[in-house]
Structures are given as structure tokens and as C-alpha cells.
Specification:
Blueprint (H helix, E strand, L loop, with lengths): L4 E5 L3 H13 L3 E5 L2 H11 L3 E5 L7 H11 L4 E5 L4 H9 L4 E4 L4 H16 L10 E4 L2 E4 L4 E4 L2 E3 L3 H11 L6 E2 H9 L7 H15 L4 E4 L3 E4 L8
Parallel strand pairs: 1-2, 1-3, 3-4, 4-5
Antiparallel strand pairs: 6-7, 7-8, 8-9, 10-12, 11-12
Helix pairs in contact: 2-3, 4-8, 6-7, 6-8, 7-8
Length: 231
């Protein structure tokens, strides 16, 4: 059976080797890139199943790597950052990262996060209910082909953005808490990564338009057609 391939993008040799060795021991095939340009090239050539991506890189940074990779082929990205700065994290999530871990991090946590993302991506399409086309106002979500259109215009989403949108669309007009979204989209039962949810909602609004996702302050989010699109 083919092993899932992970690209580790990290310019600090000690960290890169430690992560690669642990992931290899966990049964993954691992490639390493040490700067922005080589990361984009290796992502193109190797077609990894997931990228572990450091934010600070020579050449150009992890945000630019994420932008370029996602523009060519949507792929799950777990971003490593030395700073717990909310702006940096929201920007990272906004350009297509699925998750983030702040350095220093536990290898056990890193592996658990990677497996959670790969589990979610791998089960896409297994459920017959995930093959329907969902429609909310001007929004059309084709679950079978994982394509999204707004007013007939196709919108490019990352894997996690698509899964979050499906979760909201299947619960149209229902307010879902951040905890529920973390559990259903990220498999993080009991986790408190609210900024991950907020960052992806911000990215969805930027791509779909601001009127489709409603914020209920202190509670969560709901997807609903704009007033003029309702029956």
C-alpha cells in the first residue's frame, strides 16, 4: 500500500530532521524543503498529501508558499509559527493553511493534528449524503466534484474551507458554535482553537462575499441566503 507523502518545509536543520524522522517512524513518506522556492517546486513535483510549513523561510515566507501551492493544487497545510500573534495566524489561515502549531511543539501533538487532517480529507465522498449538491441562495456546493459557485461564478476553496462550507450549508440557518465546528470539521473534540474557525470563516467571506455567513456574537456562525435571495 502506498504511504501518504508529507512535505516538511523548515529551514532549521535540527527541527526539519526531527520532524522528518518522527513522521517516517509513523509510516509516512517524507520530503524536506528548506526555503520558499524549493518548497513550491517540491510541492509541484512530489504532489504531497499534506505540507508541514514553517512561517519564516528564506527566499519567500510560508504565507507566499501557501498562496502559490494552493493556487496550483489544493492541498492540506499545517503551518508552524514561532509567534502566537493573532494577525499572523489569521493571515496564514486566510491564505489556505488548515491548521497551525506554535513552536516549541510536541511531536505527539503534531502527529495527531496531521492524522486528523488526513482522516478528514480521506473520508470526503464516502458518505452518500456528501454527494448531493447543496444550494443556499446564490451559493451552489457540488459535494461530488468539490466545486463551489456563487451566482454561477466558480470559487476556488482550500480543502478545509470547502469542508467548513459544507458543514455550514448542511445546517442552513442553524447557528453552529465554534466547538461544534471544530469537532465536525477538524475532529478536535473538546479543543479550544477558536482562531482556526474564525480565520477560515474570514477567508470564506472574502471569497464568497460577506452576506452569506452570519456571526452570532459569543455563540458561532450560520450560513443563510441574503435577505433578497430568500423565498
Amino acid at each position: 500500500m502506498n504511504r501518504q507523502r508529507i512535505l516538511v518545509v523548515e529551514d532549521e536543520p535540527t527541527i526539519a530532521r526531527a520532524v522528518a524522522d518522527r513522521l517516517t517512524a509513523e509510516g509516512f513518506a517524507v520530503d524536506i524543503a528548506v526555503d520558499g522556492p524549493s518548497a513550491v517546486e517540491q510541492a509541484r513535483a512530489g504532489r504531497p498529501d499534506l505540507i508541514v510549513l514553517d512561517l519564516m523561510l528564506p527566499g519567500f515566507d510560508g504565507l507566499e508558499v501557501c498562496r502559490r501551492v494552493q493556487a496550483e493544487r489544493p492541498v492540506p497545510v499545517l503551518m508552524l509559527t514561532a509567534r502566537d500573534d493573532e494577525t499572523d495566524l489569521l493571515v496564514g489561515l486566510g491564505v489556505g493553511a488548515d491548521d497551525y502549531i506554535t513552536k516549541p511543539f510536541s511531536m505527539r501533538v503534531l502527529v495527531a493534528r496531521i492524522r486528523a487532517v488526513l482522516r478528514r480529507v480521506g473520508r470526503s465522498g464516502d458518505d452518500p449524503a456528501q454527494r448531493d449538491t447543496l444550494r443556499v441562495g446564490p451559493l451552489e456546493v457540488d459535494q461530488r466534484s468539490r466545486r463551489v459557485r456563487v451566482d454561477g461564478r466558480e470559487v476556488h476553496l482550500t480543502p478545509t474551507e470547502f469542508d467548513l462550507l459544507v458543514c455550514l450549508a448542511r445546517n442552513e440557518r442553524t447557528v453552529l458554535t465554534r466547538a461544534v465546528l471544530l469537532e465536525q470539521v477538524w475532529d478536535w473534540a473538546g479543543a479550544g482553537g477558536t482562531r482556526v474557525v474564525d480565520g477560515h470563516v474570514k477567508a470564506l467571506r472574502r471569497k464568497l462575499g460577506a452576506g452569506l455567513i452570519r456571526t452570532v456574537h459569543g455563540v458561532g456562525y450560520a450560513l443563510e441566503a441574503p435577505a433578497e435571495g430568500r423565498p
